[in-house]
Amino acid sequence: MAAEAAELAEALRLQADTVRRLKQERAGTEEVAEQVAKLLELKARLGVDDGRPRFLLKTPKGTRDYGPKQMAIRERVFSTIISCFKRHGAEVIDTPVFELKETLTGKYGEDSKLIYDLKDQGGELLSLRYDLTVPFARYLAMNKITNIKRYHIAKVYRRDNPAMTRGRYREFYQCDFDIAGQFDPMIPDAECLKIVYEILSALQLGDFLVKVNDRRILDGMFAVCGVPDNKFRTICSSVDKLDKVMWEDVRSEIVGEKGLSTEAADCIGEYVRLHGGLDLVEELLQDPKLSQNKLAREGLADMKLLFEYLMLFGIADKISFDLSLARGLDYYTGVIYEAVLLQQQNDHVEEPATVGSVAGGGRYDGLVGMFDPKGKKVPCVGVSIGIERIFSLMEQKMEASEEKIRTTDTQVLVASAQKKLLEERLKLISELWDSGIKAEMLYKKNPKLLNQLQYCEDTGIPLVAIIGEQELKDGVVKLRDVATREEVDIRRENLVEEIKKRTCQP
Amino acid sequence: MAAEAAELAEALRLQADTVRRLKQERAGTEEVAEQVAKLLELKARLGVDDGRPRFLLKTPKGTRDYGPKQMAIRERVFSTIISCFKRHGAEVIDTPVFELKETLTGKYGEDSKLIYDLKDQGGELLSLRYDLTVPFARYLAMNKITNIKRYHIAKVYRRDNPAMTRGRYREFYQCDFDIAGQFDPMIPDAECLKIVYEILSALQLGDFLVKVNDRRILDGMFAVCGVPDNKFRTICSSVDKLDKVMWEDVRSEIVGEKGLSTEAADCIGEYVRLHGGLDLVEELLQDPKLSQNKLAREGLADMKLLFEYLMLFGIADKISFDLSLARGLDYYTGVIYEAVLLQQQNDHVEEPATVGSVAGGGRYDGLVGMFDPKGKKVPCVGVSIGIERIFSLMEQKMEASEEKIRTTDTQVLVASAQKKLLEERLKLISELWDSGIKAEMLYKKNPKLLNQLQYCEDTGIPLVAIIGEQELKDGVVKLRDVATREEVDIRRENLVEEIKKRTCQP
Which residues form the Aminoacyl-transfer RNA synthetases class-II family profile domain (chains A, B) (predicted)? Predict the structure, then answer.
């Protein structure tokens, strides 16, 4: 692409930004409502200036706390995902939450405006990471790594308009798995799809579908439809909205805002309605227009190979070659994919509606080269699991079920039946901790036995080790099973072993 | 404290800030050097404008990436710490990386200037969290929680001048354990110290010492030495430096910059040199000046109780009551503590030198009330493990030892001895993954057997599953032990079981 063309494309992109911004301002009622609420709150407090805080007690917009219950669910989901990543031999890395601002510049196309910048407090200009892919590419280039399979689970930040009820936040986790290195075509790409399949199956979120496409097929399609080179990326951004809006709206955006001819738009419209499997790949390889384009032919040949590997992995039935899939980010260069959960339904309709994307990724062979002083490329392919939607679904599922979620692992409560035994409880619990037993006690000098038992009921602690004057004299501890209420005296020297045996923990 | 006094104190604090800032500017040679390096780099690149990046390839100042080896060490340390927190019955929570700016305002005293602010991009004013304690207090107040024992492991941010070689960063992990609730005195406080003891022992970092003091004893000491009320916190900040600088320097700061009388300074000087155990507590309870002060008496009585509990826990010998311990943060109200590693040495000197703080914490009974609209207090006590120093030490230890750290858990490499067996390798590895085996293969169509074996040597994979024409015909797989080089044919249907048996993994 010539320099002038790039400049024009950039100008257009800026213009599109302006339009979008204007629209957002018009629709910014949410913001206004928030401000009004803030002002009302302030007003209400002005009369009662008693030195108490006069600010809103909240987390920043688009963020949330995780309480112990949510964390228990989150850790279950993470553990499923991490064990899959490790099963595929991935190492793990971590990078800082912020990067030099220039590291992120020019990587995200129209989404760049959603990047959080840090205030200039002297020193370097910094931005919060927008995803884990660009920091990964920076890490590879900086350390001259040409070959790695790694996962990275961390929070990323986007100044988006959050829809938190649907699991969309401004601070959210990404779970990324990427394979970097020069390899034979489509083998790592197929493994990424296998990973998506394994994770979504293991999480038991219901039926799902993984849409795949290829940037080269998209670009070939744009070319044969007569889209000018410098409009490929911006038209791609519009097509990317097809999972949320109808073709008619996308069409009017690319014709109206982006100035495409109606012929080109309709040509694109014909292609993007296509989806299928290997049969569609074969069909398009014969397509009179598309088969004339070198990029499209390369993309289709690789797509064919990909489907062969997916069949060997036994997962091809969940994969749909879908020409409407575009992915928003600029850096993809080859295969792209996105997993969607299918709506649970009993009525049989032909086209099941989707409840949104839970994983996505693709190949980005040029990104590392953008960071290398000599432009040395490291081909990469990866997948990102969109964990927040999955948390939301799991939370709903847990709440719907009767399953009681324990938020601690405590095996035993150290209790006393009489007063003045605090010292003895402290001695016993210290013995248990030192032997690796997970133990708690109430932080009271003289707690009532009933309160101690109630605490076990509330928190799910299965055993109580009760000491009283008599037990101390006899060198035993009364071990009570909270569920059955059975009590039995255990010699103190056997207590650790007995607790371990009963709670089946190592 | 009257409103005027508070205002004066604030003005003084601001003045102290100005002085410090001026000093920092003078000493800001590091920054200048960085800028010069940047300019030189830019200059060097101006001649070769080939479209390649012209920016520095680095992480932001004071931050670092964690590669797979560092992550392996980090996860070992975390697992030790988390298992200790869980042994004590803690739940886990998480909060956003940034808070409303006003949430952090007025909580950190002189350290507030180290807070990272986000740029105002419209909407709320935000700051990166400075620690995990203030977000915890905000969480409690916001959710009206009056009783919880939780841990939180996350990164915090301070615009400090980093000394990364000594494990000091601008982005660093804190591992916090806190107990919130109204309980009988010193029981949760003693448990926090027990936790510090357990973690530092388990990590085997060498000998350590936990210094304890109490803000009430400090304030009592300030009062009886004639320090004006409104100077308590700023003098406290100066005394806090005693772990890094000599008393003479602190003395000249509190007399010179902070305007204390020489008599008051010398009186403080007499006290802060004291350290000991229960005996010192008893002695100070009889001290003619200190025993006249109500706050000091309360602090000393609780300190006595604390030592009694620490003796029951069997850890009193590692705890030192030290009147020079002050802790920088404003929010502490009672007992405070800080753990230091003692220098390993063979020569016997009386006073072992310390290599720096690895854990710290204390009681903060007023912080939650600062967030509650009605000022309702929730007493809290907690400890924070300063993990970066520990990582640095572990890294050095690992490098010094010959131990080879594996960065993956892969059990088996799926390999082939002949060409054209990619499809067969894909089928076999898919079977293994589906059975929960951690397996890898090279992403080559026709890799050489030698390269496949070398990969196992390099990454520590213990087994190779080799397929060739003959094995496929016979329905077997050749299983090779990488260490012994022994090979044995295993029937394909028994392969999973055999791998599990040999790698002793569930």
Answer: 38-415
